[in-house]
TrEMBL record:
Main location class: membrane
PANTHER family: CYSTEINE PROTEASE FAMILY C1-RELATED (PTHR12411)
Keyword Disulfide bond: yes
Granulins domain mapped to chain residues: 345-402
UniProt organism field: Vitis rotundifolia
Protein's recorded name: Cysteine protease
Database matches in CDD domains: Peptidase_C1A
């Protein structure tokens, strides 16, 4: 009898412990949702995400309990994604045609390099960006490398447009479906420059190329150089001079949930993600690269990861030595485009930038008074009271509307503007 009661007691304790643990994880999930602003479309979706969160929580707990782990994991912004979902949305490096384009330059002369370099401290690195659910990592690696060399050469740090590369660099690259930095460097050279992020902002999806923005050449490069594959000494020499674009394997689950410390893998050398090396150092006798990622500041060490350097293999940790390249620049950037000013109507009158002067009172062919149409390059109507935008240039003042063509062919007219 006593033996039976003991067994029942053990079972009750086990069930109570399991319920408490589940309740604790559910509470943790609610706090995590609040921290990262996560909401779900239905209770079923939320229950599914909780299950994934629980699995990732167990994985993180198991890894962090290892006594000899050189890095730790955390329930970061990707903790409600399965490993498959994460890989499908956050990578985008396409090295398949790299061998047909790569042109290895003259090896950099081996010089004494500092024991540690961090280009962030020199102001040559912009803030951490977030590619979102677009496989445009290659564009972020490209802009990061160009931003770095531009700062080093000109003294000016300008955040550049990944969206321009995603939208317009389509000869070989495929926007959110993946790309390669060498092709992107070629695109910037051929286009004679690249626009700023402020003028051509990132939206995280494929869009038609904005041809007007494409003409804005805020920063230029003269060329690019590929570092010989699997040559870590050459890679170190170049990183001591500027940030470098590299491909890595970023699809490991430990990479998804990385938090801090020197990442030692294990990981394969199958390249599927593009990042930017912005420095190197040594801590407690362990050499590492300082790597800028494009998954936002809520991942890793505020968007960065320390990856093991000198790991004893030619390809390096996660293949980081295999496909490295960097832009070259000696020429100055073109002068900035002139700032648009007011639209001059006559010697005494003007309209604001982006407006059109329309005469409101004319005497013997001379305009004595002007109105400002709030559309650029607008058409002034004959009644002197209204105007039509360039997209609908025909005035129909009787019906108070603007037409694209003659009224019998027009479908969606625009309303007249006073």
């Amino acid at each position: 009898m006593g033996s039976w009661l003991w067994a029942v007691s053990i079972l009750v304790l086990a069930v109570h412990s399991s319920v408490s643990e589940a309740s604790s994880t559910a509470d943790l999930f609610e706090a995590w949702c609040e921290q990262y602003g996560k909401t779900y479309s239905s209770e079923e979706e939320k229950a599914l995400r909780l299950k994934v969160f629980e699995e990732n929580h167990a994985f993180v707990t198991q890894h962090n309990s290892m006594a000899n782990a050189s890095y730790t994991l955390a329930l970061n912004a990707f903790a409600d994604l399965t490993h498959h979902e994460f890989k499908a949305s956050r990578l985008g490096f396409s090295p398949g045609r790299a061998q047909s384009i790569r042109s290895v330059g003259t090896p950099v002369q081996e010089l004494h390099v500092p024991p540690a370099v961090d280009w962030r401290k020199s102001g040559a690195v912009t803030g951490v960006k977030d590619q979102g659910n677009c496989g445009g990592c290659w564009s972020f690696s490209t802009t990061g490398a160009i931003e770095g060399i531009n700062k080093i050469v000109t003294g000016s740090l300008v955040s550049l447009s990944e969206q321009e590369l995603v939208d317009c660099d389509r000869s070989y690259n495929s926007g959110c479906a993946g790309g390669l930095m060498d092709y992107a460097f070629q695109f910037v050279i051929k286009n004679q420059g690249i626009d700023s992020e402020a003028d051509y902002p990132y939206v995280g999806m494929d869009k038609p190329c904005n041809k007007e923005k494409l003409k804005k050449h805020i920063v230029t490069i003269d060329g690019y150089t590929d570092i010989p594959p699997n040559d870590e000494k050459q890679l170190l020499q170049v990183v001591a001079k500027q940030p470098v674009s590299v491909g890595i394997c970023g699809s490991e689950k430990t990479f998804q949930l990385y938090s801090k410390g020197v990442y030692t893998g294990p990981c394969s050398s199958t390249l599927d993600h593009a990042v930017l090396i912005v420095g190197y150092g040594t801590e407690d006798g362990v050499d590492f690269w300082i790597v800028k990622n494009s998954w936002g500041e809520h991942w890793g060490m505020h968007g960065y990861i320390q990856m093991l350097r000198n790991n004893g293999t030619a390809e390096g940790i996660c293949g980081i030595n295999m496909l490295a390249s960097y832009p070259t620049k000696t020429s100055p950037n073109p002068p900035p485009p002139p700032t648009p000013g007011p639209t001059k109507c006559d010697f005494f009158s003007s309209c604001s930038e982006g407006e059109t002067c329309c005469c409101s009172w004319r005497f013997i062919g001379v305009c004595l008074s002007w109105n400002c149409c709030t559309a650029k390059s607008a058409v002034c109507c004959d009644n002197n009271n209204y105007c039509c935008p360039a997209s609908h240039p025909i005035c129909d003042t009787k019906r108070n509307r603007c037409l694209k063509v003659c009224i019998k062919f027009s479908s969606v007219p625009s309303v007249l503007s006073p």
